[in-house]
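To the wet lab folks,

You asked to see what we're planning to order before we commit. Fair enough. Below is the target structure as tokens, and below that is the sequence we designed to fit it. If anything looks off to you, flag it before the synthesis order goes out.
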């Protein structure tokens, strides 16, 4: 399957789930002095998440062009040292603006990966934030993930766009390439090697971090 096929499969899947296909925004964010370059798909929806802007739709799906060459999300030093880091890439993302939350987001991700892309469930590993009992319960009790393939991590599973703005706990999915590839599962000593590769990050925007660092629900 080619990159273009994966992109279209993702966009089409979420359109079928009632999401509005939204074009990628500019690589240079508009009216946002906190960012030099667009570094995530949610950048163009920042004002919507903060309740400062209303959209004509409650669900969106995008293939966002991103650059991570500075700031909080800086991959520049890893380019050339790993097979998975790039300065420029497209980030596929689905977004809900007060419509659905953790349960549906997790179900959508699992269905797309194991259904549409037909990835073997036993090859997938999941992480959640150490405080996120709700997400862990959904993965184990509703999705049926083996608890032995779920890690609870701290700062690696709390996402924020920059020093201020929308943020929250996240749940990541990793693909296990198998024991013939060096590396350990997320949270282990060798998790920076290539056996387990992150393929999805479900960010649950629960907070807004202000300039003092305080989190507001």
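Sequence we intend to order:
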């Amino acid at each position: 399957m080619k990159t273009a096929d994966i992109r279209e499969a993702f966009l089409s899947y979420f359109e079928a789930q009632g999401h509005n296909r939204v074009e990628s925004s500019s690589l240079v964010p508009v009216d946002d002095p906190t960012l030099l370059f667009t570094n995530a798909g949610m950048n163009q929806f920042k004002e919507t998440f903060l309740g400062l802007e209303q959209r004509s739709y409650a669900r969106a799906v995008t293939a966002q062009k991103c650059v991570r060459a500075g700031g909080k999300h800086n991959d520049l030093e890893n380019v050339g040292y790993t097979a998975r880091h790039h300065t420029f890439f497209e980030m596929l993302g689905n977004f809900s603006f007060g419509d659905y939350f953790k349960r549906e987001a997790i179900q959508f991700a699992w269905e797309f990966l194991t259904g549409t892309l037909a990835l073997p469930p036993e090859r997938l590993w999941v992480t959640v934030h150490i405080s996120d009992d709700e997400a862990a319960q959904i993965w184990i009790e509703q999705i049926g993930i083996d608890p032995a393939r779920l890690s609870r991590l701290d700062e690696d599973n709390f996402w924020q766009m920059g020093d201020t703005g929308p943020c929250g706990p996240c749940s990541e999915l990793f693909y296990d390439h198998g024991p013939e590839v060096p590396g350990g599962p997320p949270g282990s000593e060798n998790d920076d090697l290539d056996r387990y590769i992150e393929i999805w990050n479900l960010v649950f925007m629960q907070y807004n971090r202000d300039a003092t660092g305080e989190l507001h629900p």
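Structural context that might help your review: Residues 184 and 191 are 5 Å apart (CA to CA). The mean pLDDT is 90.

Thanks,
Computational group
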